[in-house]
Design a protein that fits this description.
24 strands; 8-stranded mixed beta sheet; elongated; alpha+beta; about 600 residues; about 25% helix
């Protein structure tokens, strides 16, 4: 009797638990209008804290959770392995119930090619999260994922991201990957790394009192070192970042891991290392860039791209080098301008600029590989700027401005700097160490991170929205007598981005658009260049399939076929590599005899 009671109690408890679990699952994702902050889900299926950074294990768990919560919207896969054998993951985000994903115009997004630039990964992940968590509540996003697909690679440098997070680094390291080299030519590899002298997990600056030093302590901020004025006696000399001479060659921190630049390893206008520092041996030396290239080549539907970097508050477009300016035609620049100038409104404090003109020269960069090797309209955003601190532009840059010190004092409560402390150095003697922590200045403070994530995601979504959207604007069937019929169709691109960039057309990077008539006996086909004067261009080869080099943004093309027999049961197929795939039955057309 007692055993039966225990079994009954256990069964009842399990039943109640199952009911609560089911109700919790049913409630997940349901919005409560009074709790919903506009633009953000109030009850997301995948809760995330966007005011912090995530390591690789947490990132992969996010991919799994998002795919499990939204199996019809998210799939993730590994596209290759890093130098140290870690997976490089890509999230595919689209409405998989609507058409084939690889036939929709696609947006490529990546971040964190420079590993110390952490927020690129967070913004990439936020974009995927924002799209799927708002899918059922924002009609704009539902329509977007019906039409478009996003390929999102949150980090394409996983080895060094993990190294930056879990090892002592400066805010400027580890920019590179983890492949080691003999940087100082002494026959040893990576034997003189940064040294965390006090074991606090931060690599900060070293200073030493000196009668000939040219630096002094800022009287308004004890954490800050400033140059003594001309004619003024200084108090300290600066000795560089924390470290010791590990190999006895009289240099400190001169043989750290890497030092190459993964963003100089791409296949357009690549230059050797003596011209472009960090370029290594040939374009595609690194397994990480090879994996991304292979994915890009195997997905010709990619029409737009966004890469996230830091620092400076910039919306960058190519070219990276002045001698490539000739490849950016007036037509293509008009598209970039339309998107980039809108981006300036969406991202206060950011400037839309050209890399080689307004920043510096870059050979072998990813942005030119995407734009000029593949014909993809590509931007690279340099995240974080001093404008974000007090919402005003500063004359000083990252190293000159005193606003970071004020911001730390007023809003971070002193958390951003390691206070100066004495240390007995084996080579330098009595020194002091202190300065900015590795996650300050270049990477966003927590409370600014989510706003930056949403604004940048919105800019990328705006770009994706304006990738080509093709539709048959009008069509008709006209009897010519003798069992011959004329079929006319007008195909309209209702967005800013053309199906092929001008550069793509000029160098025949991707195949043309195909507009074909299926289900009819085609005698001849042609593009109608001027319908008023009946000016046409005949399609001599495969007349049923008319080749159109590009369909410009906010523009239409007209095509015509002469067919034998009534084509009422035929359909028009629009087959564009970057513009999508569409079937249009002629039975929906207006028939004219």
């Amino acid at each position: 009797m007692r055993l039966s009671y225990k079994i009954l109690s256990l069964a009842l408890a399990l039943s109640v638990s199952a009911v609560f679990a089911q109700k919790k699952n049913e409630d997940a994702g349901k919005e409560i209008s009074g709790l919903r902050a506009i633009g953000s889900p109030s009850n997301p299926k995948v809760p995330m804290n966007w005011s912090r950074y995530h390591d690789l294990k947490q990132m992969e768990q996010f991919y799994k959770d998002l795919q499990k919560a939204y199996p019809d919207l998210v799939k993730y896969e590994s596209i290759g392995k890093s130098y140290e054998g870690r997976d490089i993951f890509v999230l595919t985000v689209t409405d998989f119930r609507e058409g084939k994903a690889d036939r929709k115009p696609a947006m490529w997004i990546d971040g964190n090619i420079h590993a110390n630039e952490l927020q690129g990964s967070e913004i990439s992940m936020y974009t995927a999260w924002c799209l799927v968590e708002n899918f059922n509540n924002v009609p704009f996003i539902k329509e977007l994922l019906k039409d478009k697909v996003f390929y999102i690679a949150p980090t394409i440098n996983p080895d060094s991201r993990e190294y930056f997070i879990y090892n002592p680094n400066t805010m400027h390291s580890s920019r590179t990957g983890r492949r080691p080299f003999d940087n100082d030519g002494d026959g040893l590899v990576a034997e003189d790394l940064y040294d965390d002298l006090d074991g606090d997990g931060e690599i900060v600056m070293m200073r030493r009192k000196s009668k000939t030093g040219r630096f002094k302590i800022d009287p308004d901020n004890p954490n800050r070192m400033i140059m003594a004025k001309p004619g003024e006696v200084g108090e300290y000399e600066m000795l560089g970042f924390e470290g010791i001479d590990n190999d006895g060659d009289g240099l400190v921190n001169e043989d750290i891991t890497g030092t190459y630049d993964p963003n100089r390893d791409w296949g357009w206008n690549w230059q050797p290392n003596y011209v472009q520092g960090g370029a290594l041996y040939y374009p595609g030396t690194l397994p990480e860039t090879q994996a991304v290239k292979n994915f890009i080549y195997s997905h010709p539907n990619i029409a737009g791209a966004q890469s996230y970097h830091n620092y400076g508050g910039m919306i960058l477009r190519g070219p990276g080098a002045a001698d490539d300016e000739k490849f950016y035609s007036r037509k293509d620049v008009q598209v970039y301008d339309a998107l980039g100038k809108t981006g300036e409104k969406m991202l206060p404090g950011y400037d839309y600029i050209v890399i080689h003109k307004d920043l510096y020269t870059v050979f072998g960069g990813e942005i030119d590989f995407l734009a000029l090797t593949r014909g993809i309209f590509t931007f690279s955003n340099e995240l974080m700027t001093t404008y974000k601190l007090f919402n005003e532009k500063s004359e000083g840059g990252l190293r000159q401005s005193d606003e970071y010190y004020e911001f730390d004092r007023l809003l971070m409560f002193g958390d951003a700097y390691v206070p100066w402390k004495e240390y007995d150095h084996p080579q330098y003697g009595k020194i002091e160490i202190g300065g900015a922590k590795k996650n300050y200045t270049r990477n966003h403070p927590g409370f600014l991170l989510m706003e930056e994530a949403h604004r940048n995601a919105a800019f990328t979504i705006y770009h994706a929205y304006h990738m080509p959207k093709l539709e048959v604007l009008e069509s008709n069937i006209k009897s010519l007598g003798g069992n011959l019929y004329e079929v006319n169709a007008t195909v309209w691109n209702s967005r800013i981005v053309p199906t092929h960039s001008d550069h793509d057309v000029n160098f025949k990077i991707e195949r043309p658009n195909h507009i074909r008539l299926e289900g009819a006996q085609v005698v001849t086909g042609m593009q109608v260049l001027n319908s008023d004067f009946n000016e046409t261009k005949e399609q001599k080869f495969k007349p049923q399939q008319i080749e159109i080099p590009t369909i410009d943004g906010m523009s239409a093309v007209k095509v015509r076929w002469i067919v034998k027999g009534n084509p009422n049961s035929a359909k028009v197929i629009i087959d564009s590599p970057k513009g999508g795939y569409l079937e249009y039955p002629l039975k929906d057309s207006e028939n004219k005899s």
